[in-house]
UniProtKB/TrEMBL annotation:
Pfam families: Glyoxalase
InterPro entries: Anthracycline_SecMetBiosynth (IPR052164), Glyas_Fos-R_dOase_dom (IPR004360), VOC_core (IPR037523)
Protein name: VOC family protein
Domain VOC: 12-124
Length: 255
């Protein structure tokens, strides 16, 4: 099992949480699709509910706050959230939620990049973010799908030090991004999203059987956005939960 117990390197996607209008329905849905177990952190933390695999936190689900749309937030690690928030504004982004402490857990902020994509910033304290990855039920990849990928890449390079590499066979505007030379995700255009779709980060969750997980999406009240297909990087498809939040399902790299 691929696990982690120390803080993620700055600039690395380290966590994802999902804001939903119906927490019991969401846990039923994601439990069936991704095999998650759940731990409610209680009223003090607004019933922020940890999604776990083998007793290790993989993601979280929480009730939407007033004025907040349903959807997912991908968080990038930072050694200093306040300094990162300053860089966000210096390089064409917007800080939507100013840095604040999550008691006993860490410090966070929420921002928009220069292409309008929302993301979180996480400075680890008692919680590092994802404690399991590249395993069924956990994050295996993340894409930033941006209306202006050139502006987005310049932004993330300046704020997080990301470097970029071409992907043979991918669209010209798509690249992997790396943190300290380690590939950490992808960044590019909207990849066929319906016109009017805003810039966004798309989390990919690994599953042992993509087709079975896609079937569970449909039977659980979600929708298939892109049918599962085989790619050089494994079998994958895109789905939406019953509240409209999109996510990808990935079968892992082919052997």
């Amino acid at each position: 099992m691929t696990t982690r117990d120390t803080a993620w390197p700055a600039g690395t996607p380290c966590w994802v949480d999902l804001a939903v209008p119906d927490l019991p329905a969401a846990t039923d849905f994601y439990g069936a699709v991704l095999g998650w177990d759940f731990v409610d952190t209680g009223e003090e933390f607004g019933h922020y509910t940890l999604a776990q695999v083998g007793g290790r936190s993989a993601a979280a689900i929480a009730p939407v706050q007033p004025g907040q749309p349903a959807g997912s937030t991908v968080y990038l690690a930072s050694d200093d959230v306040d300094a990162t928030a300053e860089l966000v504004t210096e390089h064409g982004g917007t800080v939507a939620v100013a840095p604040f402490d999550v008691p006993g857990m860490g410090r966070m902020a929420v921002a928009f990049d220069a292409a309008g994509g929302a993301f979180g910033i996480w400075q680890a304290g008692g919680m590092i973010g994802a404690e399991i990855y590249n395993e069924p039920g956990s994050l295996v990849w993340e894409d930033a799908r941006l209306t202006d990928p050139a502006a987005g890449q310049a932004f993330y390079a300046a704020v997080f030090g990301h470097t970029f590499g071409a992907v043979p066979g991918a669209p010209d505007d798509y690249a992997t991004f790396a943190v300290d030379g380690e590939i950490a995700g992808g960044m590019g255009g909207m990849m066929g999203a319906p016109e009017g779709t805003p810039s966004h980060w798309l989390p990919y969750f690994m599953v042992s059987d993509v087709d079975a997980a896609m079937a569970a999406v449909g039977s659980g009240g979600g929708a298939v956005v892109s049918e599962a297909v085989d790619t050089p990087f494994g079998r994958m498809g895109v789905a939406a939960d019953p509240f409209g939040a999109t996510f990808a399902l990935h079968g892992g790299m082919p052997e």
